[in-house]
């Protein structure tokens, strides 16, 4: 069997959920009591009672001793040491983890390491070896490590599969890279991860192979068909395939139920256009009727309006009101383009949309056309016309920075929309994807994510989210949230 086929099989197995419940026991064993002993040692009363309730439900015939300290006196193995080992694994302190393991074995000579801890240590060690292979561009070592530890390619470690595929590509094995990407698309479930995987796979696919990946994702998640269709159109458009989309039409405004906490309309900073009159963002407003480009704009010549220099100078200095005054009734497309950014910055997104639309079709060159369509997407987003903006972005070969800015606002708006609609898992997915894209999550959105976890019944995650925010800045809002998560 060829090595890369074997690894693909390993990836499939690693990406599947675990199964096979343990056999029921009459009384809890030493490992079952580990958490309770830990809480007793820390004297955490609420956690002790919660753990006793859990153990009684799992072992109906078991009764805890009247003096709970007997459990710790009777045990002959580590408790806090194990928590320390897990904590060091979690923060990537592998050397510290090894040191604590050695000290624990020396202190408890008869201790048998729990199987779950042994697996966690094995995985942590394998991750270090795999990362070393990736950094050294050693595809053989990376493949070998993955074959020895299939858990490296679980969906929650998707970066490993991506890194392997990139190594395979750089080693001149695009077929192996495509096989790795295909396994991710066939097995993983987080929509932003699937989108990113298909984007990465674009470099090693033919048109048919690319569409095949999109088709698999679309069939697995029919509720996200529009996302994957737009992705396929965008990637093909980048290859010079496909046709331009129809002009965007505003969707009917449907009021959504108000969320528990109301998110603040905090501005984002989109990437500046090559023109000096780069956009300065502002809070989004409510949707309104679509704008139709006036015939006078669509028939303008490309240049010739003598006010261009003065208008551009006002835009460069941030004097957007002066810019609008100097560019009234533009007589050329290049002036209309400068005015479009000034209108955007002066909270006139409908006018900006009309101007950008005319410029995008006006023959000022590929760069200006791209930047005008970027302006169209931003103007639509300022009107909360999220789907229309996504369609424009999907059909435009934006720069990486432009795409990140547009996608961040789209994820923001879709997350809030999902939360308002009580579609809490989708809200969490969108907020997680936004956090991954930007490296952080705005405080009001993090509060929404906490409440979404709470609605999903995931109190521990909700409490951790609210506690993190409370530790940064304690407010009435965070105190109320923490009380709700108790």
How would you summarize the topology of this molecule?
Elements: H1 3-15, H2 34-42, H3 45-58, H4 69-74, H5 80-90, H6 94-107, H7 115-135, H8 139-148, H9 158-170, H10 174-187, H11 191-201, H12 207-220, H13 225-238, H14 295-298, H15 308-316, H16 320-326, H17 333-345, H18 349-360, H19 366-382, H20 386-394, H21 400-420, H22 424-438, H23 443-455, H24 459-472, H25 476-484
Structure description:
This protein has 486 residues and is an all-alpha fold. Among the domains are: 295-398, Serine Threonine Protein Phosphatase 5, Tetratricopeptide repeat (Alpha Horseshoe), CATH 1.25.40; 424-484, no CATH class. Helix content is 63%, strand content 0%. It is built from 25 helices and no strands. The chain has helices spanning 3-15, 34-42, 45-58, 69-74, 80-90, 94-107, 115-135, 139-148, 158-170, 174-187, 191-201, 207-220, 225-238, 295-298, 308-316, 320-326, 333-345, 349-360, 366-382, 386-394, 400-420, 424-438, 443-455, 459-472, 476-484. Helix 17 packs antiparallel against helix 18 (349-360) and helix 20 (386-394) packs antiparallel against helix 21 (400-420). The radius of gyration is 28 Å and the shape is elongated. 34% of the residues are buried. Mean pLDDT is 78; it is low at 1-6, 16-24 and 243-295.
């Amino acid at each position: 069997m060829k090595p890369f086929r074997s690894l693909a099989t390993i990836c499939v197995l690693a990406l599947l959920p675990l199964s096979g419940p343990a056999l029921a026991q009459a009384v809890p064993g030493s490992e079952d009591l580990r958490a309770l002993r830990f809480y007793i040692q820390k004297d955490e009363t609420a956690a002790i009672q919660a753990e006793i309730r859990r153990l009684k439900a799992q072992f109906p015939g078991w009764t805890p001793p009247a003096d709970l300290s007997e459990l710790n006196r009777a045990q002959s193995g580590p408790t806090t040491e194990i928590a320390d080992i897990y904590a060091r694994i979690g923060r990537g302190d592998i050397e510290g983890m090894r040191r604590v393991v050695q000290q624990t074995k020396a202190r408890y000579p008869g201790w048998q390491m729990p199987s779950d801890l042994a697996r966690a240590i094995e995985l942590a060690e394998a991750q270090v070896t795999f990362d070393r292979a990736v950094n050294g561009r050693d595809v053989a070592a990376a493949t070998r490590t993955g074959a020895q530890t299939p858990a490296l390619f679980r969906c929650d470690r998707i970066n490993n599969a991506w890194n392997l595929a990139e190594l395979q590509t750089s080693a001149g094995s695009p077929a192996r890279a495509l096989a790795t990407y295909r396994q991710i698309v066939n097995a993983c479930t987080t929509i932003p991860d699937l989108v990113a995987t298909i984007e990465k796979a674009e470099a090693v696919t033919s048109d048919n192979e690319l569409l095949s990946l999109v088709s698999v994702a679309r069939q697995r998640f029919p509720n996200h068909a529009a996302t994957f269709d737009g992705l396929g159109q965008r990637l093909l458009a980048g290859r010079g395939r496909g046709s331009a989309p129809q002009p965007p039409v505003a969707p009917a405004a449907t009021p959504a139920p108000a969320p528990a906490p109301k998110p603040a309309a905090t501005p984002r900073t989109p990437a500046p256009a090559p023109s000096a009159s780069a956009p300065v963002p502002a809070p989004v407003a409510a949707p309104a009727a679509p704008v139709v480009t006036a015939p006078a704009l669509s028939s303008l010549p490309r240049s010739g309006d003598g006010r261009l220099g003065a208008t551009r100078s006002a835009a460069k200095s941030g004097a957007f009101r002066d810019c609008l005054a100097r560019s009234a009734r533009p007589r050329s497309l290049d002036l209309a383009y400068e005015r479009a950014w000034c209108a955007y910055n002066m909270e006139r997104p409908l006018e900006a949309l009309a101007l950008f639309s005319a410029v995008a079709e006006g023959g000022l060159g590929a760069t200006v056309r791209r930047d005008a369509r970027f302006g169209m997407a931003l103007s639509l987003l300022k009107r909360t016309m999220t789907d229309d903006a996504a369609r424009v972005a999907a059909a435009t070969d934006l720069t990486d920075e432009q795409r990140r800015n547009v996608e961040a606002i789209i994820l923001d708006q879709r997350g809030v929309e999902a939360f308002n609609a009580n579609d809490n898992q989708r809200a969490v997915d969108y907020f997680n994807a936004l956090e991954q894209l930007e490296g952080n999550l705005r405080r009001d959105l993090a509060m929404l994510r906490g409440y979404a976890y709470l609605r999903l019944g995931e109190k521990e995650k909700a409490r951790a989210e609210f506690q993190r925010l409370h530790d940064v800045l304690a407010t009435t809002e965070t105190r109320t949230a923490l009380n709700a998560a108790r």
